[in-house]
TrEMBL record:
PANTHER family in the cross-refs: 4-HYDROXYBENZOYL-COA THIOESTERASE FAMILY MEMBER, NOVEL THIOESTERASE SUPERFAMILY DOMAIN AND SAPOSIN A-TYPE DOMAIN CONTAINING PROTEIN (0610012H03RIK)
Keywords: Hydrolase
GO MF annotation terms: fatty acyl-CoA hydrolase activity
Protein name: Acyl-CoA thioesterase
InterPro entries: 4-hydroxybenzoyl-CoA_TE (IPR050563), HotDog_dom_sf (IPR029069)
Entry annotated with the keyword Hydrolase: yes
Organism of origin: Eiseniibacteriota bacterium
Family: Belongs to the 4-hydroxybenzoyl-CoA thioesterase family.
Amino acid sequence: MDGRPGPDAPSYELTIDIRDDDVDQLGHVNNVVYLRWVQEAAIAHWTSAARPEDQAALVWVVSRHEIDYKRPVMRDDSVFARTWVGKALERDFERYTEIIRRIDGKTVARARTLWCPLDRATFRPTVVGDSVRKRFSVPSTEE
């Protein structure tokens, strides 16, 4: 799950606030919370970078999450999410996210998510226009 951002895929960062209820009985942030952070980062990136007309026409759903948990996050840690786009596959769009601890810059989790665009009116999968494809995917090296 490499997916490092390149010059065609600038990253977007989102500050994360750790809430008391994010911490489980083991004293660290529960794995399910990382999933929420991955989704929040993707949505924030879409909201900040997509054109208003694209936001009005499209909504995205996840078709697959892959998460590698590297290190625990404790209640007093400060973390942020860094996300960037990958390739547009047949129907799905790749997105990568890293959760990073501020104090030492260590990656605590890394995710690869496949997002499927839906028509906002019908909630059915749809083909996106060139502006969305260009902004939210990188060219495939196989093309």
